[in-house]
Every structure is written in structure tokens, then in C-alpha cells.
Amino acid sequence: MLAAAVLTSALVMVGCARDTGTPQPGAAGTGTGCERNAAPAVAGGAANTAAPLPNADASGLKVGLAFDIGGRGDGSFNDSAGAGLDRAVSELGLPKASTKELTAAPNESEDAAATRLRQLVTEGYNPIIAVGFKYATALETVATESPNTQFAIVDDSSVDLPNVTPLVFAEEQGSFLVGAAAALKTQSCKIGFVGGVEQPLIQKFEAGYIQGAKAVAPNIQVDVDYLTPAGDFTGFNDPAKGQVVTTGQLDGGADVIYHAAGGSGQGVFQAVKAAGKSAIGVDSDQYNIPAYTGVRDVIITSMLKRVDVAVFDYINASAAGNLQSLPTVFDLKVDGVGYATTGGKIADITADLDAYKAAIINGDITVQSTPSS
């Protein structure tokens, strides 16, 4: 028991552990201490501005996909990227035999990442899609060496080369909506966020989640923990650590936990199920992920980061020779992010969430992408 307590304490202190807000007891009409604001009234609703490119013929392409840690089966954004490739095979005539998937190893060297990309170049794959910001340095090197090969990179816009297309998302906007959902569903006026690695991309999830929660309940308290510090990517594939840290948040009174932790989310869900509380998934509709069937009853929604849409659209635009048709950012306006309703657990609050969505799309609410100090 002492060892378990020490482990729990040590893991919670890794990276960042803090809380925001001070719940006040006795808010009228709620019985939870949360003083909830009414959803915004937005005239005209939220009209998406997506204008999808017609399906092109991709039968002549060879597409390489370099996954991040976890690869297919992570139940998160790698699976979503894979779904985009599968859709291209199904809808664009891309031969399955003309695709290849490779997967990163935890904490591998830049040389190893570059070798993986070079392998795809050497074998004639074009375009090549790197899934995850950790490929940025290796991709810049390999894309410079291979100017006649087209590349895309998910979650990074730092590589400024004519043959590299960034596929980036407004994660903070989707996270705002699930933060609002958490604040509408909490019974304790205390919720939690578990990030995989404490670095700017995952902090976008945190920032939007907290802002959305506080838009609904200004006095809500949000516990924040990261599994590993910046540079240590094992936080995206450590369910045991995710379970321990989440248990700490639940023991502290949080009753809705949102994770942006990749494969570590399995441990988050297990801890929430053991406590009989609620969880929010990320990237994919995790209620529908087969690996999560045993815990799906606690998943009330997921923040949808449509990596599948971005990968499909990129392959389609590549086949059409029109990469300029891609959006600069996959945001709410183009359905690049959103929230899941599978399971019906937030059916009673979707009108409120859609009102916040409309306010964001219309510019009435600006969602911050970095956490407040």
C-alpha cells in the first residue's frame, strides 16, 4: 500500500499537476456548487463552410503512411489516420497494394525516423504522410533530400518546404465543446484533464477544455496532469501511468475526466470505470473503438479530431494535383474538429453545445490555444 501511494504521488507530480477555479457551494438550482451560464443565443445557426473537392482518381498513386507511436490499434489519432487511408482505398480507387504503413518506436532517434521516411521514398511512395509532430525534424531532412516527393505532416507547420503540406487542426475549438459538456454534466463542480506529454500541441487541448468548462460554469475547478514532460513521448503509450494519475484526480473529487493521451487513454477509461464516473475520449469516436468496448459505458463523448478527413482530403488533392484546395487549418468551419454523440449520453445538452459551436464559427467566441497562466 505504501509503494502504491508513493507511485501515485510520483506520477501525479510528473510534468504538470495543478487545478484551476474554486468551487463555491450552494449555487441555486444545481445542487452541485456550479453556477451555470445559459448557452449563447446565436442567430442563424452554425453554417459550415466546407466545400469538398470532388473525388479524384488515385489509382496511379503509391501512398506511404508513417505512423506515430502506437500505430494502428491505438484507438486514437493513428487509427484515425489509418481510417483516412482506408477511405481513399475505398472511394478513390487507390490500390491497397500501393500503400505501405510503418510505425514509430517510443523515444526513437531522429535518425530512425528519417530512415523510415527514406525507406518509403526509396520504395517509390509518393505522397508520404507523416503522422505526428515528432516527425518534423526528420521530415525536413528527408524532404530536402527528396524534392520530387510530396510529403504531408499531421500536427506540425514548422517545416517550410515547397513539397511539404502541413495538416493542422483547431484542437482547442473541439476541446472547448467537450469542456462545456463536462461542465454541464459534472455533479461535483470539479473535472479533470490528463495530457500525454506536456508540450504545446497537447496544451491546446487543455486550453480549450478549460475555457469551454468555464464558459458554462465560471467557478468550476479543473485538475490538470501530464503523464510525461516535453520530449518524453512514452506518455502517449503508457496505460498504467494513465490509470494511476486518473485515479488521483478521481480521488480528489473530479467526476468527468478528459484525456489527450493517445494509447494511455485506455488506463484513463479503466480508472474512470472503476470509480463509476464519466470520461471524454479524444481524436476518434472512442465509444466505437473495439478495444474500448469494456469501458464504453463511461465515455459520454469524444473530441473528434478529424485526422481521417485530413488524410483523405490530402490524398484526394494529391490525386487531383490541387493541394491548394486544402484548408489552412482543419477547424469547426470545415468539420475538422467536433464532438461525438454516440451512446446518447449527451443528448440532453447537444442544443447547448451546438450554440457554443455556432458562436465559435461566427466569431462571437475566440478560443485560446495556450493555457492561461
Please describe what this structure looks like.
The chain has about 375 residues and is α/β, with parallel strands linked by helices. It folds into 2 domains: about 15-35 and about 170-305 and about 330-360, Response regulator (Rossmann fold, 3-Layer(aba) Sandwich), CATH 3.40.50; about 65-170 and about 310-315, Rossmann fold, CATH 3.40.50. The chain has 10 helices and 12 strands. It has helices spanning about 1-15, 75-90, 110-120, 135-145, 170-185, 200-215, 240-250, 265-275, 305-320, 350-360; strands at about 15-20, 65, 100-105, 130, 150-155, 165, 190-200, 220-230, 255-260, 280-285, 300-305, 335-340. Helix 3 (about 110-120) runs parallel beside helix 4 and helix 5 packs parallel to helix 6. The chain is globular.
Topology:
Blueprint: H1 2-13, E1 17-20, E2 63-67, H2 77-91, E3 99-103, H3 110-122, E4 128-131, H4 136-145, E5 151-154, E6 164-167, H5 171-185, E7 190-198, H6 200-216, E8 221-229, H7 239-251, E9 256-260, H8 265-275, E10 278-283, E11 299-305, H9 307-320, E12 337-339, H10 350-361
Parallel strand pairs: 2-3, 2-4, 4-5, 5-6, 7-8, 7-9, 9-10, 10-11
Antiparallel strand pairs: 1-8, 11-12
Helix pairs in contact: 1-7, 2-9, 3-4, 5-6, 5-10, 7-8
